[in-house]
Amino acid sequence: MGLEEQSFVLITVVVAVLFSFATASCSNGECKVLEECANNGACQSGEYCFSCPLGFVGSRCVRSQISDQFKLVNNSLPFNKYAFLTTHNAFAIDTGVPRIAPTNQEDSISQQLNNGARALMLDTYDFKGEVWLCHSFRGNCYDSTAFGPAIDTLKEIEAFLSTNPGEIVTLILEDYVKAQNGLTKVFIDSGLMKYWFPLKNMPKNGQDWPLVSDMVANNQRLIVFTSNKSKEDTEEIAYQWNYMVENQYGNGGMHAGSCPNRAESSALDDKSKSLVLVNYFESIPIKQTACIHNSQPLIDMLQTCFAAAGNRWSNFVAVDFYKRSEGGGAFQAVDLLNGKLLCGCNDVHACTPGSTSPCTM
């Protein structure tokens, strides 16, 4: 080995050692996003220690909580001027009960809400004489596809709204309940009706929604959409496609540079619907790849869907395994959306608090 080669090797070793020392030197809640960590306690608040072998070596701190745009900037704009983290099949959690249905999340509903998820996708079915949450097929729920009675999840949501009086939660139901007034009954029994945002107040023809501050003041902090068109007339539960456009879910919505609409949705650039939802998750959920999908590819898709939606940033971004990422993940994606919606910035943290003025950085 020549002198030049020896020097290069020596420099490489020194740099590697210094880098290792720098990344491993933080601890006790000091480690920042993407710094190496030994456990959750090493990471800063709002982060946790996570391994994404497809994305980086070892364990690093990644984000685990949303930035509250209402507190960072304001809550005085229409509801459709904000973006919200959405958990796909929020109820489909591995509880140790044998099922043939896949799981899409790892945290409880309460944990999802506490970490900043503000929209939950739930699949509702008739089962055992009640409304259950199932991940099933052909509109029927079975023991092997059932995750639990809907009322248990709805009570968790009620507890969150009760203890967080400034927050709004949106439920997007894939709805197979056929029992007459079955959905209405379970919402009444759960205690959620006192937060209900009334159908009559939902804007049509692309108009703005009420101000968030007014929704909070009126305690109308639960928005519910159903995939069953008839229930808008029979139970006054909003039919999702009258108010929202949505891109294709599953692998069909993950092709780079393409953002087609879901079959049930009108075209993404239909501005008679004032809410935009972007799905970005695989047809068959895989934990190991979620950390990659929830990172730069998600950001890229949001930009693609912005153009497809007639230069509108999405209000909801739905993902699987919402905390898995290569760093900022779905949380950073929502920060981007709120930055774009609130002040035209690439990050909500660059917005001027209390206003919609241009970026501060």
From TrEMBL:
Highest taxon listed in the record's lineage: Eukaryota
GO-annotated molecular function: phosphoric diester hydrolase activity
Record flagged with keyword Oxidoreductase: no
Alphabetically ordered keywords of this record: Signal
Signal peptide annotation: 1-24
A Pfam match: PI-PLC_cat
GO annotation terms (biological process): lipid metabolic process
Gene3D superfamilies listed in its UniProt record: Phosphatidylinositol (PI) phosphodiesterase
PROSITE patterns named among the record's database cross-references: PIPLC_X_DOMAIN
Family matches, as SUPFAM superfamilies: PLC-like phosphodiesterases
The keyword Oxidoreductase is annotated on this UniProt entry: no
PANTHER family given in the database record: F21F23.12 PROTEIN, PTHR13593
Protein name, UniProt field: PI-PLC X domain-containing protein At5g67130 isoform X2
Species this protein is from: Ziziphus jujuba (Chinese jujube)
